[in-house]
Design a protein that fits this description.
The complex is a heteropentamer, with two copies of chain A (about 260 residues), one copy of chain B (about 230 residues), one copy of chain C (about 220 residues) and one copy of chain D (about 280 residues).
Chain A: E1 4-15, E2 18-29, E3 33-37, H1 44-51, E4 59-64, E5 67-68, H2 76-80, E6 83-86, H3 98-108, H4 114-127, H5 143-155, E7 161-165, H6 173-188, E8 193-196, H7 200-206, E9 209-214, E10 217-222, H8 224-229, H9 234-241
Parallel strand pairs in A: 3-8, 3-9, 6-7, 7-8
Antiparallel strand pairs in A: 1-2, 1-4, 4-5, 9-10
Chain B: H1 2-7, H2 18-51, H3 56-71, H4 74-89, H5 95-121, H6 124-132, H7 137-167, H8 179-189, H9 197-227
Helix pairs in contact in B: 2-5, 2-7, 2-8, 3-5, 4-5, 5-7, 6-7, 7-9, 8-9
Chain C: H1 3-43, H2 49-61, H3 65-80, H4 86-112, H5 115-123, H6 128-158, H7 170-181, H8 184-215
Helix pairs in contact in C: 1-2, 1-4, 1-7, 1-8, 2-4, 3-4, 4-6, 5-6, 6-8, 7-8
The chains are: A alpha/beta (about 260), B mainly alpha (about 230), C mainly alpha (about 220), D alpha/beta (about 280).
Bound molecules: adenosine-5'-triphosphate (ATP) (2 copies) and magnesium ion (2 copies).
């Protein structure tokens, strides 16, 4: 059994009276890639945000490497460094160039030297094929390029775990591919990742484990092959069905 | 042509130091506006930050302040500060100083509101991605939020300069000798020699104001376009 | 503060108030009409008129009302030898200035309506005119409200400049009383009170309408 | 206009108000005493800057005129620099009461109401109200002014006060500054212009086509320097100065330097007051 | 051979020097459902916009029922009535209720009576399951609901042909399904449709014919089954590949 990096233990999260996450527990192991799928509004984003302490939780606990994650604790910035997060909307800092976006946090937060970080940033940019854009501003990039920079920016902090929240939802199909390819490569290289996505083919290809969330609970947890071919629960089956279409045409009429 | 120049009083302009004095009057106007805007930016940023506080007391105070500035004509404020203050609290202000106080009082409110708007228009995601990179609150503020705010503010504060410049003719009422007052002095000193000087001088002042304000407006809208994406 | 003085001044300030409202009202009326026409000219890029409209907007927006009024009131008669009535000058001056501001407000309102709104109206078979009338303008008006309210307040305040062309509005009433009787504190107190009476309701109603509209804000 | 009713009642109330203010201000004086002025090395004198030939600015930016000539002499005899403050008719009382200037030398007519608010020194010029109108439609009596006609006045002048009080039926058009009033008058905004007769005479003498139809309206008045109420040291000094200057016939010299071009010799004795003594 | 509704004959379209559509020809028959796919920027939206005369063309001609479509002609509004169009961004009129949105054009343009149109609108709303929303404003609807209203609005004009431009691109997966189901039903009922979409499963299910566009030209035109199983051209193959993912995990590590 590999090391457990992240432990989510029976957490509750509600907005007002609205219970969003209901006693959810999950362990993430080192090098594991977990894909979380589920209908809209089921609490996927909320879960990722709780892990990063962007939202307070009302019960249970989340630990990274055994350390409690708590938005009010003094060392929360410390812990957040170990968690890389990429959001749906390319949230690069618009007033900084690509390179500045990447090296800002390693320099300010980890107090690493500018030269060292720049070198690493350039290597990473090279890997995602964006080295020539290093002095561009975010507005000069396409959506897909922005997302790849956002991934590099998170990677450059050497996080223990990466969280991805529908990073391709706002992209054109071409760009979806280039971003997902970047993530596939990370997975190949052994990064620990928690991914929320609606790309079922991609989920199937990248996941070590698929978590199906509905109504704030884990409804099904399975190996991707099993899940996508024979989901155990009816809810998961129904969800997967929404991606299939019955042909309506007979193709017997000749034009 | 010659007749027209004399008739409408343009010739008066070039008598003695008249034109230089007129420019000097314009400079008084510019000086007061620029000083006031500089002060307004500094104070406005502070006010803007205060306005984002959720504290009901500061909120109410700011609201009243903004409302006063919004609905009181600048001329009323000038009179209150220049004459009223002497009457009520015995403070003697130089007229230029009183003008700077009023313009700053007004500019700070406008800047404050702009700063508040700019701060609140920074998407939540910008804060969140900064936090998730491990930046703390003050790092997030200084590296991420404030620089973005300043870009949004730049064109708007430049616009404020033109609006102040356009308000300065009022300060003649508190005895500042600015361009319109100089014009009146010239008109009167030449009432025999050039009875129609009023047309020429007011036309020149009109042109002078336009020459000063228009480039500034253009700069503001240029920056606005440049930084809007 | 001498209350007898204040009471004895009330009728004068009432007259000043009426003049402020009268000139403000007509000036604003002109500015709305002028602004709308100018905005449409600029929006539809009517040849020649468009250039004139742009020059008009730039000139009026970049010079002080006071100077514009001087020019209209003192300058033009010198040039053409016609007598201009001060109230007319004030109203025309305010209307011209306001027209430039309103034009910008309406134009950006129209531009705030997405082009796709026009396109979907067209694809439903509407003519451009129908689309403008039923789809674009109603939305543009709503988008313009906050700037419109700001303009109203601005223009009403600008009437205080009229004192320079001998219009006895509120500000001039105060100035004149200070000049004649040196009742500075009372005169200023009254002018503040009367401006509050004029402008506070506009400001409050404006904010309420704005909030309503923001709540009902269009789109998604 | 309606101002009159209000003002009649008001005059006394105003007097009260300003007296109270004075009592309150007496120790932390708003004015500067003679010693303070001397020590500071400069004196602030409020003059007109657009009222040729009494106080105006020439094309070289220098203050000139009858009042200015006197002001320079005061400064010289005090041994201080003079700092001219451009003032409007409407602001003269205010400027003294709020200590913006030490002396007003701006064609300031002595009236009872004003004397309650400021302290006048000895007079240096005679004045009455006069009304100027275009020669082809000369107004020689106020009754000629119709209900649709307007008379131009400058806000805060004795002309305004007089007409509001005595002829409330006449419509007044009020202007802030002398030059605005002048321009408006030339543009035909009013059938007549009521002002100090010194000024309307000067105007009619220098501009073609205008006549002073009413050379005297109301009582004969005088023009005098004014200081902030209570500034006795300065007031006494000015009075002494005016008396002293009589020896050298200073104001006659002043007249000849500044006014003679406008009025000619004829008005000299009528206008000038020497040594503060009215003949 | 069924009637030809729309004829596109050798059209050229450029923006400035940029040639977007290059001598493109296409016939659409009555009752036919054509799906247009292709990489981003290949000119799909431009083609639909040209058909509706929202963009002028520089060469060739487009005819609907034999009538020339020309943005400058006097009767263009007449012709546009026969073309229903639904855009990517829910372009409902925000200041009108759902019902008002639908009945506006039939009343103003076709001069039909309010009662009659209202009745039809209500029937159509019923069919797409939105009758209870008829007095709501667009902002009160979800994205999927807005798109269904947009479809009803176009349908209510009784168009001869419907154009759909990536109508689900901005929607959550759940909503995608409800909109596509509405379109499937239209297809079943014999509407003539030209659809641009990136949902390959849906394209396969609904199309009578698939057009693959690249570089402003029709690269491949085929029966959907053939196209999706054995595309004839390499470009199409490459495009379809972007929707497939190779698994990167071996699923041999046990946690
Ligand atoms: N700030 C908030 N205040 C109140 N309710 C919220 C807030 N954020 C989210 N919710 C609610 O919490 C629930 C879960 O939201 P969440 O964003 O986690 O869903 P999701 O699974 O990520 O959905 P999607 O696939 O649409 O992104 C939703 O019902 C949403 O309405
Ligand atoms: N108004 C315009 N001015 C100039 N170029 C344009 C304009 N609109 C589109 N283009 C260009 O025309 C080309 C085709 O655009 P179009 O929107 O038709 O592509 P598309 O196939 O619909 O792509 P997508 O799948 O991203 O919607 C693109 O290269 C685009 O940059
Ligand atoms: Mg989400
Ligand atoms: Mg497109």
């Amino acid at each position: 059994m590999a090391d457990t990096v992240l432990t989510i233990n029976n957490i509750n999260k509600s907005y007002g009276d609205n219970l969003i996450l209901n006693g959810l527990s999950l362990d993430v192991h080192k090098g594991e890639v977990i894909v979380i799928i589920g209908p809209s509004g089921c609490g996927k984003s909320t879960l990722l945000r709780c892990i990063n302490a962007l939202e307070p939780i009302q019960g249970g606990e989340i630990r990274l490497d055994g350390e409690l994650i708590d938005g009010n604790s003094r060392n929360i910035a410390q812990i957040r460094q170990k968690i890389g997060m990429v959001f749906q909307n390319y949230e690069l800092f618009p007033h900084k160039t690509v390179l500045q976006n990447i090296i800002l946090a390693p320099m300010k937060v980890q107090k690493r030297s500018k030269d060292e970080v720049t070198e690493e940033a350039e290597q990473l940019l090279e890997r995602v094929g964006l080295l020539d854009k290093k002095d561009s501003y975010p507005r000069q990039l396409s959506g897909g390029q922005k997302q790849r920079v956002a991934i590099v920016r998170a990677l450059c902090m050497h996080p223990e775990i990466m969280l991805f929240d529908e990073v391709t939802a706002a992209l054109d199909p071409e760009m979806v591919r280039e971003v997902l390819d970047t993530m596939l490569e990370l997975a190949k290289n052994g990064s620990t990742m928690l991914i929320v996505t609606h790309e079922m083919n991609f989920a199937r290809a990248i996941a070590d484990r698929v978590i199906f969330l509905d109504g704030g609970e884990i409804v099904e947890e399975a190996d991707p092959e099993d899940f996508f071919t024979y989901p155990k629960t009816e809810r998961a089956q129904k969800f997967l069905d929404t991606f299939e279409y019955e042909s309506v045409k007979h193709h017997d009429n000749e034009y | 042509m010659q007749a027209l120049v004399t008739d409408l009083g343009f010739d008066v302009l070039f008598k003695g130091t008249n034109f230089t004095r007129l420019l000097g009057g314009m400079w008084v106007t510019l000086k007061i506006s620029l000083i006031s805007v500089a002060l307004s930016i500094v104070l406005g940023i502070l006010l803007g930050v205060v306005m984002t506080f959720k504290n009901p007391v500061t909120k109410a105070i700011c609201r009243v302040y903004l409302e006063i500035v919004r609905i009181m004509p600048q001329l009323v404020l000038l009179f209150i500060v220049y004459y009223g203050s002497a009457r009520l609290i015995g403070l003697k202000f130089e007229p230029e100083f009183a003008a700077v106080i009023v313009f700053t009082f007004w500019g700070t409110a406008e800047m404050g509101d702009l700063v508040r708007g700019a701060l609140q228009s920074i998407p939540k995601h910008q804060y969140e991605s900064a936090y998730s990179l491990g930046l703390n609150r003050s790092q997030t503020y200084f590296s991420i939020v404030i620089p973005q705010t300043i870009r949004r503010l730049m064109p708007l504060s430049i616009n404020l300069v033109t609006r102040m410049i356009k308000t300065t003719p009022l300060i003649v009422m508190i005895e500042v000798v600015e361009a319109t007052k100089v014009a009146r002095q010239i008109i009167d000193a030449n009432r025999v020699a050039s009875p129609n000087a009023a047309f020429g001088l007011f036309f020149v002042i009109f042109v002078l104001y336009f020459a000063v304000c228009w480039p500034i407006s253009l700069l503001a809208s240029h920056l606005e376009k440049k930084w809007s994406n | 503060m001498n209350w007898d003085v204040i009471v004895s001044y009330l009728p004068l300030y009432k007259d000043g108030l009426l003049i402020t409202l009268y000139t403000g009202w007509f000036g604003i009326l002109i500015s709305i009409v002028l602004g709308l026409v100018t905005a449409l000219i600029v929006h539809f890029k009517v040849p020649v008129l468009k250039t004139i409209a742009k020059i008009y907007i730039e000139i009026l927006r970049n010079t002080p009302l006071l100077i514009q009024l001087f020019f209209i009131y003192y300058g033009i008669p010198k040039l053409f030898g016609i007598v201009t009535d001060e109230l007319t000058c004030g109203i025309v001056g305010l209307g011209l200035l306001g027209g430039a501001y309103m034009a910008e407000t309406f134009r950006s309102g129209i531009e705030a309506v997405d082009t796709i709104q026009m396109e979907s109206a067209l694809s439903l078979g509407m003519t451009r005119r129908q689309a403008m009338f039923h789809i674009i303008l109603p939305q543009a008006v709503t988008y313009s409200v906050p700037a419109f309210v700001a303009n109203l307040i601005f223009l009403l305040k600008e009437t205080s400049v009229f004192s320079c062309i001998s219009i006895l509005e509120l500000m001039f009433t105060a100035k004149d009383r200070i000049a004649v009787s040196s009742t500075t504190v009372e005169s200023l107190f009254l002018v503040v009170v009367f401006y509050l009476i004029v402008l506070l309701p506009v400001s409050i109603i404006g904010s309420v309408v704005e909030r309503r509209l923001r709540y009902a804000s269009f789109g998604n | 206009s309606k101002a009159t009713d209000a003002d009649k009642g008001v005059t006394e109330a105003v007097a009260d108000a300003s007296n109270n203010a004075d009592n309150g201000d007496s120790d932390d004086t708003i004015y500067r005493t003679l010693d303070q002025i001397k020590k500071s090395g400069s004196i602030k004198i409020g003059v007109f800057s657009d009222k040729n030939p009494f106080g105006f600015v020439d094309e070289n930016g220098e203050y000139q005129g009858y009042d200015v000539y006197f002001a320079r002499r005061i400064a010289k005899d005090l041994g201080v620099e003079v700092e001219f403050v451009s003032t409007e008719a409407a602001n003269r009382v205010e400027a003294l009461q709020t200590g913006k200037v030490d002396i007003i030398l701006a064609n300031f007519t002595v009236t009872e109401e004003r004397a309650q608010q400021v302290d006048f020194a000895l007079p240096y010029m005679n004045v009455a109200l006069g009304v100027v109108s275009p020669s082809d439609k000369a107004i020689t009596d106020l009754s000629q002014i119709g209900t649709d006609d307007a008379v131009i006045v400058i806000s805060g002048t004795t002309a305004e006060i007089y007409l509001e009080e005595n002829n409330p039926e006449i419509t007044l058009k009020k202007y802030d500054t002398y030059s605005d009033a002048k321009t408006a008058f030339e543009n035909g905004q009013g059938v007549a212009w009521a002002n100090d007769n010194t000024e309307v005479i000067a105007y009619a003498n220098t501009v073609d086509g205008y006549t002073v139809g009413i050379p005297k309206l109301g009582s004969d008045d005088t023009i005098a320097p004014a200081v902030t109420k209570g500034n006795e040291s300065l007031l006494n000094w000015i009075n002494d100065e005016i008396k002293y200057l009589a020896d050298e016939q200073f104001f006659h010299k002043d007249y000849e330097e500044t006014l003679v071009d406008t009025y000619g010799k004829d008005y000299e004795e009528e206008l000038v007051v020497e040594g503060g003594v009215i003949k």
